[in-house]
Design a protein that fits this description.
Elements: H1 2-46, H2 57-141, H3 148-180, E1 186-189, H4 190-198, E2 208-211, E3 217-220, H5 222-238, E4 246-253, E5 256-263, H6 284-287, H7 298-308, E6 312-317, E7 322-329, H8 331-339
Parallel strand pairs: 2-4
Antiparallel strand pairs: 1-3, 4-5, 5-7, 6-7
């Protein structure tokens, strides 16, 4: 759809450019042709001195014919020059029009892709729990001897599915907002935000070994960065053995501020490692245990938040430990770099 729209918009841009070019070419031709004729007439009159010898009709006709021939040659040369110029404008305008068309339709295409992806993701992920709930209800409703305990068990099971649906809806809405919204940013300190990100894991605080700088200033959205750190901390807690150690480090690397979290546990295979930031991707066979399956959206949201802040996130996994690290532009170092180009 967008390819055909790009071609059509390119054609319209090119038609407008060529129409303007042809109008200007016609105007330039008329003005220059008129000016050439006037100059040739003036030149013809200046070469003839009537006081010396009167002009014969034959001489006059010859001079007029010569002037007309020169005028025609000048006209042909002007037309050829304008044709070459318009041909160049046609080619250059075609490339320029295509570039402008892509720039114009680019944001619209991205928004359309995000909307389509959201719709596809939502329909795909909502279908499974809804189907499970429907199947359970149909089975129990057909049982005429349904006991109270069984009915309670059914309601509890359905309530769990409802909680999953609510959680999934919230995650999908977060992804949609990150795709469309522009976050308000200000100067923030990662060290000061870390306690807020770890607040939900207060019961496991003894498991964490934390190493930070005195401060780590960046330019970003406070809520989004807290969400980013929270996702990585939750991921480390969920996929590491109980009571195992989890290390967190906030550091600086050139013009970037880094947040690294390491945990032990089942490693992520090399084949699956490049895909863990994809939406709805779950490394079930190597990473998750019974009851620990996530929605497959947390790391995708983390990656999106890092990209919105002009940073990036990466992961590594060995037999001993798994680590996730995100890097965001460092405000203090970047300011120093601008003030002192020799740094």
């Amino acid at each position: 759809m967008f390819k055909s729209a790009t071609v059509k918009l390119t054609a319209w841009y090119l038609v407008i450019i060529m129409a303007i070019s042809l109008i200007f070419s016609f105007a330039i031709y008329q003005l220059n042709f008129h000016e050439v004729n006037i100059r040739l007439e003036n030149l013809q009159h200046s070469l003839i001195d009537p006081s010396i010898r009167p002009r014969s009709p034959l001489t006059t006709d010859f001079q007029d014919e010569l002037r007309m021939d020169q005028s025609r040659q000048a006209a042909v040369q002007m037309i050829l020059a304008l044709v070459y110029i318009n041909a160049f404008i046609l080619v250059a305008g075609g490339f320029g029009s295509y570039f402008l068309a892509r720039r114009t339709l680019g944001p619209i295409e991205k928004a359309h892709e995000a909307q389509s992806r959201f719709t596809s993701d939502a329909s795909h992920e909502l279908r499974t729990p809804l189907a499970a709930m429907k199947a359970e209800l149909e089975v129990y409703l057909r049982d005429d001897n349904l006991a109270l305990d069984e009915a309670k068990e059914l309601l509890e099971s359905n309530l769990e599915e409802v909680d999953k649906l609510i959680q999934l809806s919230e995650m999908l809405l977060k992804m949609a907002r990150l795709d469309y919204d522009k976050l308000e940013k200000k100067q923030i300190d990662l060290v000061e935000l870390l306690p807020s990100a770890m607040k939900p894991f207060a019961r496991s605080k003894k498991r964490f070994d934390i190493t930070t700088r005195k401060n780590a200033l960046i330019f970003g959205n406070e809520a989004a960065v807290i969400e980013l750190m929270n996702i990585l901390v939750e991921n480390a807690v969920k996929y590491s053995p109980d009571h195992s150690r989890i290390s967190i480090r906030i550091f600086e690397k050139r013009l970037m501020t880094g947040f690294e979290i390491r945990n032990t546990g089942t490693p992520i295979s090399e084949e699956k490692l490049p895909h863990i930031f994809d939406r709805f991707y779950r490394a079930d066979n190597s990473r998750t245990e019974s009851g620990k399956n996530g929605l497959g959206l947390g790391l995708a949201i983390a990656k999106k938040i890092a990209e919105i802040h002009h940073g990036y996130i990466q992961a590594s996994s060995t037999e001993k430990e798994t680590s996730f690290t995100f890097y965001l532009p460092n405000l203090r170092n970047l300011t120093a770099k601008i003030q002192d180009p020799q740094l």
